[in-house]
Design goal:
2-enoyl-CoA Hydratase, Chain A, domain 1; 3 helices; five-stranded mixed sheet; two-stranded parallel ribbon; alpha/beta; 7 strands
């Protein structure tokens, strides 16, 4: 797999784009750079000719373990900036994906926590392995 934080493979024969979150060592926890990469990949799909379906998945053993808590440690100001930057990229990416004339399918394994759960729930269909864990997680970090 590529070193890119989010990759998209497009199969022109089927019209299926597979977008993969690619930070397996961090269980695909979404950092600011990953959020920005997610938005860039969503923007690249916007004008893709022949797009019929978008599949979201995670590399390694998890879909997404939520926000990258390491980027939110330190002062409240640093945490606030990290959260704002992540949301500032993820929210437009979600809106963009939802505006496309193609269903979004989340293929979930391992864990979908916090932001990962939100991303799974924005999909039209979620396909999950039997042992997948879905966690809100926001209360664990004092967020609402």
């Amino acid at each position: 797999m590529s070193d890119s934080l989010v990759t998209t493979e497009f199969d022109a024969d089927t019209g299926i784009a597979t977008m993969t979150f690619n930070r397996p060592a961090a269980l695909n926890a979404i950092s600011v750079p990953m959020a920005e990469a997610f938005l860039a990949e969503a923007q690249a799909l916007k004008d893709r000719s022949g797009l019929r379906c978008i599949v979201l998945t995670g590399s390694g053993r998890a879909f997404m373990a939520g926000g990258d808590i390491a980027s939110m440690t330190g002062s409240p100001e640093k945490a606030g900036k990290a959260v704002s930057a992540i949301l500032g990229a993820v929210n437009p990416a979600i809106l963009l994906l939802r505006s496309m004339d193609a269903p979004v399918i989340a293929v979930v394994k391992g864990v979908a926590a916090g932001a990962g759960l939100s991303l799974a729930l924005m999909a039209d269909l979620v396909i999950a392995q039997e042992d997948t864990k879905f966690l809100l997680a926001y209360n664990g970090i004092g967020a609402i």
